[in-house]
Amino acid sequence: MASESNRATIVLAVVATLVVAGLGGYFVGSSTQRPGADSDVVATVNGDQITRMEVHEKLMEYYGTVTVDDMILTRLVKQEAAKAGVTVTDAELESEVEAFKAASGGDLLFSLTLQQYGMTEAQFRDFLRRNMNATRVLRQELEPDDATLREYFDAMQGSDETRRIKARHILVDTEEKANDIRAQLDAGADFAQLAQAESADTVSGARGGDLGLIARGDTVPEFEAAAFALGDGEISEPVQSQFGWHIIQVNALDFEQEKETIREQYLSEKVNERMSGWLSELRQNAQITNTLSE
């Protein structure tokens, strides 16, 4: 539940970033083919011809600068990825796109979101590949040692606002079914097996109900209130939310046992904090000529 919600938020953040940066125009312009001869007519208006060259010139006027600027950034990231030995395979990109689609509510809603901002899926993939390359480079640069990771963990768990818990849940449609699940657990049934067999959240269900680490604000209020009120190992009574009825189990974090999960959390946060400044530094430190900006 938490991971799907976060990824859906990322979808909206990505497209919003593109629009704010003016890249919606880039996407319109970049889809036009290279210009041909003046006589290559693409439209007529009461006999008055519009040529491909005219279209190209207008697109260059409106979108040429931001298009080249975006291409420069893509080239800079690609160069840094090559230096770091980082690659993003087509299969990895496809897997990430499919995850975004699922988080958005399926292919149709994903397409509608992109259309709202004047993007095609192919153009979104281009941006996503660049972001994946940049993320992998930064992960190498920011890889923490154990002392740094321990300091991060202690600071995170030292405040109720930043504290994270390890949660899993079983989601069902009715209160009656939720009570039945809770009764089975009280009788000694295995939580992970019940999640795999019964949970309507098939993504977490396949992992035994595991939602990973969650913080306040990551889930809907009803789920959050119940989860953060539980002690280590405790199982909740049925909790109703807009998604259905949840049975929640929470475990306190143990640094050694969850070190790799904590490492992923650390890297995710630090990459997000570093990304914008890092991209700006790439530009500042590169030798760039751009005649369209002159």
How would you describe this protein?
- The chain is extended, with a radius of gyration of 24 Å.
- It has helices spanning 2-20, 23-30, 52-84, 90-104, 107-116, 121-142, 146-157, 175-186, 191-198, 202-205, 221-228, 259-285, and strands at residues 41-45, 48-51, 164-172, 210-215, 239-241, 244-251.
- It folds into two domains: 2-142 and 266-293, no CATH class; 149-251, Chitinase A, domain 3, CATH 3.10.50.40.
- The longest helix has 33 residues, at 52-84.
- By secondary structure, it is α+β, with helices and mostly antiparallel strands.
- A four-stranded antiparallel β-sheet has the order 4-3-6-5, with helices on both faces.
- Helix 1 (2-20) crosses helix 4, helix 2 packs across helix 3 (52-84) and helix 4 (90-104) crosses helix 5 (107-116).
* Rg (C-alpha, Å): 24 Å
The order of strands across the largest sheet is 4-3-6-5
Secondary-structure-derived class: alpha+beta
**Order of helix and strand elements from N to C terminus:** HHEEHHHHHEHHHEHEEH
* Assembly context of the chains: single chain
**What is the general shape?**
extended
Please state the average pLDDT score. 86
Main sheet attributes: strand count, strand direction, barrel closure: 4 strands, antiparallel
- Give the distance, in angstroms, between the N- and C-terminal Cα atoms: 49 Å
Count of helices? 12
Taken as a percent bin, the fraction of beta residues is 5-15%
- Spans of at least 5 consecutive residues with low confidence: 1-6, 18-38
**Secondary structure: number of strands:** 6
What helical percentage do the residues reach?
55-70%
Q: How many domains in all? A: 2
